[in-house]
Amino acid sequence: MTYSTHQQNPWQQGVVAPGRPAPPWLRPQGGPWGQPPPPAFPAAGAYGGHQEVRRPGTILAATIMAYVGAGPLMLFGAVILIGSLNESFVEGFAGAAGLGASPLADQRMLLLGMGGGSLLLGLAVTVLALFAQQGRQWAHITLTVVGGLYTVVSLASVGNGSPQSILGATYVGVAVMLLWIGGAGARYRSRRARR
Q1: What is the pLDDT of residue 180?
Q2: At the N or C end, where does the chain have fewer CB atoms within 10 A?
Q3: What's the alpha-carbon Rg for the chain, to the nearest Å?
Q4: Residue 28 carries which DSSP code?
Q5: Distance between CA atoms of 175 and 152, rounded to whole angstroms?
Q6: Statement: residue 120 has pLDDT above 90
Q7: Alpha-carbon gap, residue 105 to 118, rounded angstroms
Q8: How confident is the model at residue 91 (pLDDT cuts 50, 70, 90)?
Q9: Burial environment of residue 140 by CB neighbours within 10 A (0 to 12, 13 to 18, 19 or more)
Q10: Is 54 in a helix, a strand, or coil?
Q11: pLDDT category of residue 186 using cuts at 50, 70 and 90
């Protein structure tokens, strides 16, 4: 049995049953029902030709090390600042540091400066690590400079009779090194080129 094109047979290709939409293979090419196709979204990186490089694990490890290192620094600063309000704490600290002959006001100012400096340095390292983790190159470089200075000062204090400074210098040195290896440079360059 054959069907002519005048009969409405939905099984025959090219013919549509009355009251039914056309099957996809009979619809006009382009958009739905002959409309122009929608504009295609550009491929990733088509705007300016730059693709953002994924954050390598070395940056995450370095910033976590910075957070962990800044924590005790801020805690030390807070304890010293609070302790500088107590006269017996100031005298005990000055006696342990060999500053017993200086006036109490000078000892207190020394403690305030030490505590405030430690607290501010810990906060600065935390903020820099946060921005470095987000891919900000200025924070990456500043964190490297701060870490490098700390490492140099710690290694210099080893000669003054502080061998425990080697641990701190090694810790900070490893964190700074992690900021520069494992594709970290490509990540920071891609974030900078994207802006």
Answers
A1: 87
A2: N
A3: 34
A4: P
A5: 14
A6: yes
A7: 20
A8: confident
A9: buried
A10: coil
A11: confident
Place of tokens 């962990």: 68
What is the residue type of 71? G
Instruction: Give me the residue label for tokens 């425990």.
Output: 164
Please give the DSSP secondary-structure letter assigned to residue 7.
Answer: S
Tokens for 135, please give them.
């891919």
Question: What would the two tokens of residue 19 be?
Answer: 């009251």
Cα of 51 vs its chain's centroid, Å: 18
Strands in the chain per DSSP E: none
> Angle at which helices 87-97 and 104-133 pack, to 10 degrees?
90
Cα(35)–Cα(37) distance, rounded to whole angstroms? 6
pTM of the model: 0.66
d(CA 23, CA 44): 33
Q: Provide the token pair at 64.
A: 């976590």
Count of helices and strands (H, E) across the chain: 6, 0
Give the Cβ contact number of residue 175 at 10 Å: 25
> What is the reported pLDDT for 93?
80
What is the mean predicted confidence (pLDDT) over 62-75? 94
Residue 112 and residue 84 in contact, taking contact as beta carbons nearer than 8 Å: yes
> Hey, CA dihedral for 12, 15, 16, 17, is it positive or negative?
negative
